[in-house]
Design goal:
- The protein is of the alpha+beta class.
- The protein is elongated and about 90 Å long.
- The protein contains 5 helices and 7 strands.
């Protein structure tokens, strides 16, 4: 994967303490990851970068909207998303990103790329089932919803006919009634 330059932070020139970074994420960002679930996206990612003597602390906060298709009706709608993520970057002998909250980079490195963390922050903020708000409150008019309603199973009315039943079944029903 190509690392995007605007998401690489050269921390070697930064003073110790807090630094603020802000990113505006749109669909061009997701094209680099070959992710095409969003019709459009407008997400703001604020990152608080705290440089300490032996480690770096990164606090990500994403807020915004993504336009997705409803899982039930396939109607597009704007879905608000909000997510946070905390990452600690330490220095070690070799690169290691096996732990999701801890990144170890070699001692000689002077920059860190955060594009993968921003991508995961936004994608993991998505609910597993995306339902149009009009479906939930009943205001959405859609041909698909009408068809789903037409095809949904209806309540069956039980007709109690006093027909003759097999006496063997009656004996079995009595066994069930005896246990209760």
């Amino acid at each position: 994967m190509i690392q995007l330059k605007e998401y690489t932070i050269p921390f070697v020139g930064l003073k110790q303490g807090l630094h603020q970074f802000e990113y505006q994420i749109d669909n061009a960002f997701f094209e680099h990851f070959e992710y095409d679930e969003f019709n459009s996206s407008a997400v703001k990612v604020d990152m608080e970068f705290n440089k300490k003597a032996t480690l770096l602390e990164l606090q990500f906060k994403a807020t915004g909207t993504v336009n997705v298709n409803c899982d039930l009706t396939n109607e597009p709608f704007d879905l608000p998303i909000k997510n946070e993520f905390f990452l600690v970057v330490k220095f070690g002998d070799e690169y290691n990103d096996e732990n999701e909250e801890l990144l170890i980079i070699p001692h000689g490195d002077y920059e860190v790329n955060i594009q993968q963390y921003i991508y995961e922050l936004i994608v993991l903020a998505m609910p597993s089932k995306r339902v149009h708000p009009g479906v939930e409150n009943g205001t959405l008019e859609s041909d698909i919803l009408e068809k789903l309603e037409e095809l949904s199973p209806k309540e069956k009315t039980i007709v109690n006919n006093n027909e003759e039943t097999d006496p063997r079944w009656d004996k079995l029903k009595n066994l069930l009634n005896d246990k209760q």
